[in-house]
Amino acid sequence: MKRLAMTVVFLSVLGAVVMSAQAQMQMPKPSPELKKLDYFAGSWTMQGEMKPGPMGPGGKWSGTESLKWMEGGFFLVSQSGFQSDSMGSATGTAYMGYDVNDKMFTYDAFNTVGESEHAKGMMDGDNWTWTSEGKMNGQSYKSRYSMKILGPTSYTMKYEMSQDGTNWNTVMEGKATKGK
After folding, report:
1. Which pLDDT tens digit goes with each residue over 4-58?
2. Which of 30, 53, 102, 122 sees the fewest Cβ atoms within 10 Å?
3. How open is the CA angle 118-31-76, to the nearest 5 degrees?
4. How do the residues of the chain divide into helix, strand and coil, expressed in percent and rounded to 5?
5. What is the average pLDDT across 95-109?
6. Is residue 36 in a domain?
């Protein structure tokens, strides 16, 4: 009986310590830098041109993208669709966030043709630049996705690839327009 009483007292004290520690711990808050991603929240339509090259013969493309904040406000979630004359269609999901340790924006995307991309981004005035590295057909490459904000409801984009990080080839260009 004495052992049972001591066990109950011990568990009560342990429970109080845990509750006190939880009360003192505050939930993390989203970085103020994330507010810069508010621009992208909403529904977008996009169109442009693929250049002939490693991604195919080139041609016109179009797409849609809907971006909403994930509960908690740490990530902007994108659901997108893409159609191309030369590459067919695909859908994808992406997560945009901010890495407070690296002081860089993050972009992690996955699509229905098995591709994934993990990029880091920076904003300089009205220009966003996202960079990543990957492999295609066994060859390493670097990529750069540039966006120029034209106004509250539109931006232009350019996707470039390079094997050495010095000589860049434009793979795709286009424009995005935000819906109402």
Report:
1. 555 655 556 556 555 655 556 888 899 999 999 999 999 999 999 999 876 678 8
2. 102
3. 50
4. 20, 55, 25
5. 97
6. yes
CATH number at residue 138: 2.40.128.20
Is residue 157 domain-resident?
yes
State how far Cα 45 lies from the chain centre. 17
Whether 143 is covered by a domain: the verdict is yes
Q: How far apart are CA 51 and CA 34, in angstroms?
A: 33
How far apart (Å, rounded) are the C-alpha atoms in residues 131 and 148?
A: 15
Residue 4 counted as domain residue: no
Nearest C-alpha neighbor of 173 from the set 49, 46, 81:
49
At 141, list the tokens.
Answer: 């490459």
Domain that holds residue 88: 32-178
Average pLDDT over every residue of 98-105: 97
* Total structural domains within the chain: 1
Worst-scoring range by mean pLDDT, 46-55, 94-103, 167-176?
A: 46-55
